[in-house]
Design a protein that fits this description.
single chain; 577 residues; mainly alpha; Receptor-associated Protein; 22 helices; 77% helix; 0% strand
Length: 577
């Protein structure tokens, strides 16, 4: 997400600098743009970006105008010039707003970790009512954007007698007001009487949990109408109108391959992408999967197998379609099935790793409750770990058992066994798991008082997971509808309508020959594939953010399903008509 330093400028930054030099005018960037560039860690100055946007808009507009003058007839040139002006203005607007959208997406993705951060801070406050120590503990074993922001505020607060929690909450208050209120309660708990402290800390966590839940419930209610409009006017209506193209041609409306390509392969996908950006940019928080990639040691990712399988699928799809479909069928089958299988298998190992880590996170609260109950009764943390590892099954039990074995065989303490050079949690890139188990080393020092804190943490984790489940459930209807539309319903409708249009031409209706519409399946097929990609990305982005492995995996499945559904419905409808 970051850009290179000024001493090692990327090609994009150099292009921005060149474009900006062509627009030597005074501009006044907004504070929001400056803050977005700072968040993205771009070395481009806001003034430079604004001038580059204006320069790029003029350049694109002039080029489009020249093309209109060369390619279009005099009768339609005014329309072409108007389109060129619109494209130029849109180019400037995109360059100026994309950093804002990107920064908003990063903030939204980061705020999903807010309840975990507050839970860690309240946990430390239960043992030592010092906000400074709580702030430092909250960012341990967490390298996310939210933790990095708190770390910066802690650094700035050194020597001032403050913890940094207050300024941190103020910084994020515009995006997430509940976080500011929650951190204010944690600060107040530091000076509150002992009898009131536990109640204040419970209230602090409840505030951030309720804030997360309320924002997601409100967002799910707000996007129903936009998603319905997207579903109707961006997917079903365009695919249904395909069957009316022969009638439009008969009434004198020019229907040519170029016009259909412009509408279905450029304009409609652009509208869908714009709708996706708008919807995702208005999402309050996201719950991204763990930071896992194909290069991670736990991911058994082979490059040869997905590429070979995708190539075989593409060849098989081309050959099969060439036997059953017109000339547009083999390219659609090869691209859709081949790229779908490649993406599906390429990212499957990463998604399998997500499932393992999520299974560990699911059982984390049970593990902490078992350990905390034993520690509260005077059992040593090391012994409690050993007993819990034997009682728990699944990935969580295996992780604890591996840590216990490491500790006993190498004669090291709990911290070294889990977080040292050969720590077992190196294979579990989950901030929630790592930060929660980091408290075990504190519990080993504190003894019995840490038992009640571990039990409280286990209860808090249950609440956190429930909030995430409720948030995903609130969006489930929308995301499932979007995903199913892109992978199945949309392609089915498109295949049937293309077959209907072909049947009208075959029967000579409206005075149209069969040959005049033989090309129609190609542009519509490209639209079907683009729709599968865009809607799959939207379905994932609304709840998990634009996580590359998850989007790639879901897109691969959708491409395969959409291609098969489109071609099959075309074939079946052609037989029945």
């Amino acid at each position: 997400m970051s850009m290179p330093s000024p001493h090692d400028k990327s090609t994009v930054q150099q292009a921005v600098a060149v474009l900006a030099s062509g627009m030597p005018v005074a501009v006044e960037p907004s504070d929001r743009l400056a803050r977005a560039l700072e968040l993205l860690e771009w070395s481009v100055q806001p003034e430079t970006l604004l001038r580059a946007g204006y320069s790029a808009g003029i350049l694109v507009g002039v080029c489009c105008g020249l093309l209109s003058a060369i390619l279009l007839s005099p009768a339609v040139r005014p329309v072409g010039f108007l389109v060129a002006l619109s494209v130029g203005l849109l180019t400037s607007h995109l360059i100026h707003t994309l950093p804002l959208i990107w920064a908003t997406a990063r903030q939204t993705r980061a705020l999903g970790a807010a309840p975990d951060l507050v839970a860690r801070a309240t946990l430390r406050m239960r043992l030592s009512p010092t906000p400074e120590q709580a702030a430092v503990f909250a960012i341990q074993r967490d390298d996310g954007l939210l933790a990095a922001s708190l770390k910066q505020h802690i650094r700035q607060a050194r020597g001032t007698g403050r913890s940094g929690l207050e300024t941190f909450g103020t910084y994020w208050s515009e995006r997430f007001p509940a976080l500011e209120r929650s951190l204010a309660l944690i600060e107040a708990a530091g000076t509150a009487p002992t009898s009131d402290r536990a109640q204040l800390l419970d209230r602090a966590l409840r505030v951030v949990l309720d804030g997360t839940s309320n924002q997601m419930q409100s967002f799910a209610a707000r996007i129903r109408s936009p998603v319905t409009a997207l579903y109707a006017f961006g997917v079903l209506l365009p695919t249904a109108l395909v069957a009316l193209l022969p009638a439009a041609g008969a009434t004198g409306i020019g229907i040519s391959p170029l016009s259909v390509v412009l509408l279905y392969n450029i304009v409609l996908p652009a509208v869908l992408v714009g709708a996706v950006i708008w919807l995702v940019s208005h999402r309050p928080v996201a719950f991204p999967p763990p930071a896992l990639s194909r290069s991670h040691t736990t991911v058994d990712a082979s490059t040869t197998y997905p590429v070979l399988a995708g190539t075989i699928a593409a060849i098989g799809g081309w050959y099969s379609a060439s036997q059953l479909f017109p000339s547009w069928g083999p390219p659609i089958a090869a691209v859709g099935i081949g790229s779908g299988v490649l993406l599906w298998l390429w990212y499957h190992p990463v998604v399998a790793g997500y499932d393992r880590i999520e299974a560990i996170e699911t059982d984390l609260s049970d593990a902490l409750a078992l350990i905390g109950r034993q520690v509260a009764h005077g059992t040593a943390v090391e012994t409690a770990l050993d007993r819990t590892a034997s009682e728990l099954a699944g990935p969580m039990g295996e992780t604890l058992a591996e840590g216990v074995t490491q500790q006993q065989q190498l004669q090291m303490d709990v911290h070294e066994a889990f977080f040292g050079r050969y720590g077992v949690l190196d294979d579990v890139p989950s901030p929630r798991v790592r930060s929660s188990l980091a408290f075990l080393s504190v519990a080993a020092r504190e003894g019995r008082p840490a038992g009640s804190a571990l039990l409280a943490l286990a209860e808090h984790l249950d609440d956190l997971q429930q909030v995430e489940r409720d948030a995903q459930h609130a969006l489930a209807h929308v995301t499932q509808t979007i995903g199913t539309t892109g992978a199945l319903f949309g392609p089915l409708v498109a295949g049937v309508t293309v077959a209907l249009a072909g049947a009208i031409g075959t029967e000579g209706a409206f005075g149209i020959s069969a040959e005049s519409l033989s090309w129609l399946g190609g542009p519509v097929g490209v639209y079907v594939l683009s729709m599968a990609v865009i809607l799959s990305a939207l379905s994932v982005g609304l709840t998990r953010g634009f996580d590359r492995p998850l989007v790639g995996y879901r897109t691969g499945r959708a491409l395969v399903c959409a291609t098969v559904a489109y071609l099959s419905s075309y074939q079946v409808a052609g037989l029945l008509i």
